[in-house]
Each structure stands twice: as structure tokens, then as C-alpha cells.
Write a structure and sequence with these properties.
This protein folds into 2 domains: about 160 residues, VC0802-like, CATH 3.30.2130.30; about 160 residues, Vaccinia Virus protein VP39 (Rossmann fold). It is elongated and about 75 Å long. The strands form 3 sheets. A 7-stranded mixed beta sheet has the order 12-11-10-13-14-16-15, sandwiched between helices. The protein is built from 9 helices and 16 strands. It is of the alpha/beta class. It binds S-adenosylmethionine.
């Protein structure tokens, strides 16, 4: 059996566990509220390739565990085992990121000495350290009782960030924490900003509109609520202060000509089927190569049924690019769509 560590949101542990069991990966124990240890029935590389092809919604990050080290005498053992691990694989001139994470309180453990030993082993193995996104990840997971090491192509880990914890720098201009969701969605779904017109449904207080403006879009933000004062009277942002349904009626009355958007964002606080139906009603006002990003707000219980129902509605007008519970999603998942047939 091959061991691996995976992460998920704290309230999605059972969903993530079920998703992995479909790939023959069975959970052994909970390591922390967002981290679990599992083992794979089959070759772990093959299982992870299958996961990569058909990505789960709730599993955020996955990495193999090939070595376990006790905290006693950790320094010497970590050096030897890391060196042996790195020398056992042909890395060539590919880059390696050392991704260390504590999943318990390890403040009383020799964490600094452990990491120094691992970094020294990487230097002595002659591997090139990654500046940005690494080709390979050396995962170091620190629990109360042991340290687990795993080495793998970063692209097979579902996220190239340690534990899938994608954090962004907080700028002074930040209007809402929701902004991080949209930034993460662009990355996760590989969306290239096209510029042009973006429609931002549920746009207040203006975080997503700010990001879209920064990515080169002219934004129409639709929301009965006020925009943050920093977003009012900004060139490139128009606030339609009403509901999405009212905006739909307005552009419907004017005729579709002249109203074609390049991007549709929807972060409306709304039941997921209703929200999906509205997104479908906006399809005639989207250009053929437009991308759509929406959050599905999930009511407690039966997450899968809500996602299934929303998916069935969305598929009438769009192809699903991906559905994922992002690091920045709480009680929701993010969906990326393309106009059907593109
Ligand atoms: C989570 S907030 C959106 C935050 C926004 N993405 C940001 O970054 O600032 C949800 C918004 O949905 C709006 N909303 C709820 N129902 C709506 C509807 N029918 N039409 C338009 N907006 C709606 C609410 O007024 C609220 O401002």
C-alpha cells in the first residue's frame, strides 16, 4: 500500500474522502481538521494521474508520503532520508519547491533544525530550487508525532501550493476578501483575461469589479447594494443599482445588439439553482469565447445534490470547464464555464 496526504475544507472531510475512494484511495486517519492520511490500493502515480484527468471538487491538494521520520534525532535522519529520496529520482534541470507545513502545534519541536537539514540535503543533492511554480514538490508535513516527506511532480498534486493553501498578498486597496476567490479561480481554471466587457452580478461592494478592472475589463457591476466609495465614479466601472433580474429585463428590452460581454462573473448571494438559471438567461448576451466564473452558495447538507442540480441547469447553455472548492471558498464551490460548443 502507498500512503498519501490530502487536504480539504474542514467541513468537506467526508466529501473529499468519498471522492478519493472512487480512485481506490482509502482514508486511514484524520491528521488535522483539514488534512487526512490515506493509502492507495494501486500504484500511487497511476492513481494520481487518474485524479488529474478527472479532478475532484473537494480534495484540495494531494501528495505522496514516502518517508516518515520521528522527531527524536530528526536532524540527521531528515538529512539522510531527504538526500536518498532526491538522489533516487532523475530530476535533471527541473526545479524543486520545498513545501513545509505544520498540521499540529509543533512549536516545542526542533522545526528550524529539521528544515535546515532538508535544505542542506537539497543543496547537496544539487537540485535547482524553484523561484516561482516548481516542477517538483518536496512536501514536508509536520505532525505532533512525526514528519512525513513526499516527492512528486507538482502538477499531480492538484495545487502547486503547499496543502493547496493559496494565499495572496493583502493590498491596501482590497475591498473584500472575495477578491481572493476570483484571483484563485483565474489561476485554477487557467483563464486568460481577454479584456473587453465584463458583467459582475452581485458586484457590491466591488471587490470582483476591482480585480476585473485591473485585468483590463470594462465592468458593469449589478447589485442593489452600494459599491464601496473607492469603486464609485471609477472610470471603467458602471454600477447598475438593481437586481440581476432587473438588469436582464433592461437589456432584453433594448435588444441583444450591442450588449455582448467577454466575461461573466456571478458571486450573488442566492440559492444555487436560481443563480444557475439566471446565468443561463444571460448566455445570449455573452460572446462565443467568453468565460464565466460563478460561486454556488451551498446550503447546509446535501452539497452534492445542490451541485448536481446546478450542473444540470448550467449544462443546458454552457460547457463546464471545472467545479472546485477553492482555498478561499467557504460553504460554496466555484464553477468555470464556457459557452456551449466552444
Ligand atoms: C458575497 S456578495 C458579493 C461580493 C463581491 N463579489 C465582491 O467582491 O465585492 C453577494 C452580493 O450579492 C448581491 N445579490 C443578492 N441577490 C442579488 C440579485 N438578485 N441581483 C444582484 N445582486 C444580488 C448582494 O446584494 C451582495 O452584495
Amino acid at each position: 500500500m502507498h500512503k498519501l496526504i490530502y487536504t480539504h475544507q474542514h467541513d468537506a472531510a467526508r466529501l473529499a474522502k468519498d471522492e478519493l475512494s472512487r480512485f481506490g484511495i482509502h482514508t486511514i486517519k484524520t491528521v488535522s481538521d483539514e488534512t487526512s492520511l490515506a493509502e492507495s490500493e494501486t500504484d500511487i502515480f497511476a492513481a494520481r494521474c487518474a485524479i488529474h484527468v478527472s479532478p475532484p471538487i473537494f480534495v484540495r491538494h494531494i501528495c505522496p508520503v514516502s518517508v516518515s521520520i520521528a522527531w527524536d534525532g530528526v536532524e540527521a535522519e531528515a538529512y539522510e532520508k531527504t538526500l536518498a529520496l532526491l538522489q533516487s529520482i532523475y530530476i535533471g534541470n527541473k526545479t524543486v519547491g520545498i513545501q513545509a507545513r505544520s498540521v499540529a502545534d509543533v512549536s516545542a519541536k526542533p522545526r528550524g533544525a529539521l528544515l535546515d537539514a532538508i535544505h542542506k540535503a537539497a543543496r547537496d543533492a544539487g537540485v535547482a530550487r524553484a523561484n516561482g511554480t516548481p516542477d517538483y514538490a518536496l512536501s514536508v508535513i509536520m505532525t505532533d508525532g512525526e514528519v512525513m516527506l513526499g516527492f512528486s511532480p507538482a502538477a499531480l498534486n492538484l495545487s502547486t501550493f503547499a496543502g493547496g493553501n493559496r494565499s495572496f498578498r493583502r493590498s491596501d486597496e482590497l475591498i473584500s476578501r472575495s477578491e481572493f476567490k476570483l484571483l484563485e479561480a483565474f489561476e485554477v481554471f487557467g483563464i486568460t483575461p481577454s479584456g473587453g466587457g465584463a458583467l459582475d452580478l452581485g458586484g457590491a461592494p466591488g471587490g470582483w469589479s476591482r480585480i476585473l478592472l485591473g485585468l483590463g475589463y470594462d465592468v458593469v457591476a449589478v447589485d442593489p447594494a452600494e459599491l464601496d466609495e473607492r469603486m464609485s465614479n471609477v472610470a471603467g466601472v458602471t454600477h447598475f443599482r438593481a437586481t440581476a433580474q432587473q438588469y436582464l429585463a433592461k437589456i432584453g428590452n433594448a435588444g441583444a445588439s450591442g450588449v455582448l460581454f467577454d466575461f461573466l462573473a456571478n458571486d450573488m448571494k442566492m440559492e444555487s439553482s436560481l443563480s444557475s438559471r439566471l446565468v443561463c438567461q444571460f448566455a445570449p448576451y455573452m460572446k462565443l469565447n467568453a468565460a464565466v466564473v460563478l460561486t454556488l452558495k451551498l446550503l447546509p447538507g446535501k452539497y452534492l445534490k445542490q451541485i448536481y442540480n446546478a450542473r444540470k441547469i448550467l449544462e443546458t447553455r454552457y460547457d463546464i470547464v471545472g467545479i472546485k472548492q477553492l482555498f478561499h471558498n467557504r460553504n460554496e464551490v466555484t464553477v468555470c464555464l464556457k459557452i456551449k460548443g466552444m
